[in-house]
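Q: Sequence in, structure out?
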Amino acid sequence: MPHLTVHLPENRLTGRELMLVAALTEAIADVYGEWARDLVSVRLAGVPAGRFAQGGKAVDTNASVTLGVRAGLFDRPDAAQITARLGTALTDAVTRVIGDDVRAGTTVELVASPPERTFVGGALAV
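A: Exactly. Output:
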């Protein structure tokens, strides 16, 4: 199950939530396939002004995307291609909705979870 957590400056996110959720979901479906669409879980977090900083200065042009994936993704022969596609697709989704000026400040982090460490509704996710 792809789990996304996205932190964006609040002033850039407000009013664009539904568009961003749709764009991120579409990005995952484009990379993984249509089967993944209904499994995409998105959490958006607006960061108040002055609480996103780069180089010691407050900015409103950064975005942070964390994608929780199964650890097996990194063991696939095509892992380098898949991870590169995820990084590009998610960055493109953010910039398409929020604006291209956040591209340079957008980070995408893929966090691996072994199958025995992912639970949904209190039960081990299969």
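The first strand starts at residue 3 and ends at 9.
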